[in-house]
Amino acid sequence: MKIGVLALQGAVTEHIVSIEKTGAQGLPIKRAEQLEEIEGLIIPGGESTTIGKLMRKYGFIEAIRDFAGQGKPVFGTCAGMIVLAKRIDGGEPAHLELMDITVARNAFGRQRESFECDLEVKGISEPVRAVFIRAPLIKEVGPDVDVLTVYKDEIVTARQGNLLVSSFHPELTDDYRLHQYFADMVEYSAAANQ
Amino acid sequence: METGTSRVKRGMAEMQKGGVIMDVMNAEQAKIAEAAGAVAVMALERVPSDIRAAGGVARMADPTIVEEVIKVVSIPVMAKARIGHYVEAKVLESLGVDYLDESEVLTPADEVFHINKREFTVPFVCGAKDLGEALRRINEGASMIRTKGEPGTGNIVEAVRHMRYINSQIRKVNNLSLDELYNEAKTLGVPYELLLEVHELGKLPVVNFAAGGVATPADAALMMHLGADGVFVGSGIFKSDNPEKFARAIVEATTHFTDYKLIAEVSKNLGTPMKGIDIASLSPAERMSERGR
């Protein structure tokens, strides 16, 4: 099973290392045609404005919408969550507009307010170490969105069908259970598509 | 909940990978940089080439400029403090700067000691021209390394030299046997534990960017080809004829550094690049890369 990581900018190699721990093959994706080679896609952390611009420039907006439209899973962490959202708080134009959530960018403040802590994620038995870096959070969710983690009354992990998002960076720890959760989603969808 | 941990600080640098960090001198330039796809901006009073031309003592930027830039962009804002100038760094941290550069571009405040960067909540980037310097800075708490290059010259040769040298030293350390490592740590003047980490990882334990002399999209791509995790561009962008176009071209060449047709395309009609300085024409005192060991 092949899972791609959008490799326009950001923490690409860390995601590939985490994916490979689940037993799947990790692949950096630089061109839209490469989406045909993979069964699931991760949009990594980085700068959402940079990633969003490069996605537009290289035809990734339509291509990823098609990819997700076929039921193939997409996982966005931090900046990845921002680009998947239908709405961005403050009126900034949204990017992929796939997931029925409203996100607020840099919601916890500047870098000096960035932090790590242990959090419960629905569907994962023990708490995970969550690293928040100038992280966004989810302000509102649509009716089809399942909230997986709440931190201080704010939503930081959620799922809507084949779409998974987290405010924090599971790829920065050795714990790959959230990647395993995603790999299971990919395996399930790949089996269903056959 | 913990802030300012090594993971949070180094993680911040990981998020910048594959990106371009641009020097800006005011809010307007910051907006141009952000619109072009910069992953961060470095707020400065003068770019390195102007510092070089002006001479005298170069210090931290006026806080007004830093605040003005923080106000207008949503991407991270960096700022430079003089080597060893703890108070400049604390002042910049108090303004809400996301990343500090303890930089040889400014006139050093201390010719022996660097800032103890572990005491800060925000991460630091520091310049290095060899593995010894890189590991000493990491030991002091730097969360990101960049090549020193020779800032403000528009000449890539020193950045190339430093990147190649650091990488060749890492390859050597990677191949040493465990009983040879301790002696190598002594020779390099670095902590054994850090050298052991490099030996095991086969790379620095933090992100390593290229800086100091990047003047064209092809320069940026060359540094990525040599193994840089990303690129700092100082004087090149806002000294060019068309900063907006130039900035976009550098971002695209950095992302697609092996796509030579694309680099050709974005390099078209960029106007006159920085004139540049031949390094051989600089006296040792004029070389910023000799500052801070």
Task: Summarize the structure in words.
- The complex is a heterodimer of chains A (194) and B (293).
- Chain A is an alpha/beta fold and 194 residues long.
- Helices cover 27% and strands 31% of the residues of chain A.
- Chain A has one domain: Class I glutamine amidotransferase (GATase) domain (Rossmann fold), CATH 3.40.50.880.
- Chain B is α/β, with parallel strands linked by helices and 293 residues long.
- Chain B has a single domain (6-274), classed as Alpha-Beta Barrel (TIM Barrel).
- In chain B, 43% of the residues lie in helices and 13% in strands.
- Classes of the chains: A alpha/beta (194), B alpha/beta (293).
- Chains A and B meet through α1, α2 and β7 of A and β1, α1 and α12 of B.
- β7 of chain A pairs antiparallel with β1 (2-3) of chain B.
SSE inventory with pairings:
The complex is a heterodimer of chains A (194) and B (293).
Chain A: E1 2-6, H1 12-21, E2 25-29, E3 40-43, H2 48-57, H3 60-69, E4 74-77, H4 79-84, E5 85-88, E6 99-104, E7 115-119, E8 128-132, E9 137-141, E10 146-151, E11 154-160, E12 163-166, H5 177-193
Parallel strand pairs in A: 1-2, 1-3, 3-4, 4-12, 5-6
Antiparallel strand pairs in A: 6-9, 7-8, 10-11, 11-12
Chain B: E1 2-3, H1 6-14, E2 20-24, H2 27-36, E3 40-43, H3 48-54, H4 63-72, E4 77-82, H5 86-94, E5 99-103, E6 124-128, H6 131-139, E7 144-147, H7 157-175, H8 178-188, H9 192-201, E8 207-209, H10 217-225, E9 231-233, H11 235-238, H12 243-255, H13 260-266
